[in-house]
Amino acid sequence: MSLINLLIVLVVVGVILWLVNTYIPMDGKIKSILNVIVVIAVIIWLLQAFGIMGGSIA
Fold it and tell me: How far apart are alpha carbons 3 and 38 in whole angstroms?
């Protein structure tokens, strides 16, 4: 996977998360949990993309 593809995916995920946080009304605790889940998923995906962590998420 090229660096451009990684950057595009990160920007898209960030914009979607920002839109959800801004325009969908929900409790602050739920937003925090959602943010943590997305950040952990992106970190795991990046580790797999760079080959640091083996396996795949299925």
Answer: 20
DSSP string computed for 4-49 = HHHHHHHHHHHHHHHHHHHHS---HHHHHHHHHHHHHHHHHHHHHH
How far apart, in Å, are the Cα atoms of 19 and each of 12, 13, 53?
Answer: 11, 10, 30
pTM: 0.79
**Domain extents in the chain:** 3-19+26-49
CB 7 within 8 A of CB 15: no
Report whether pLDDT(5) > 70: yes
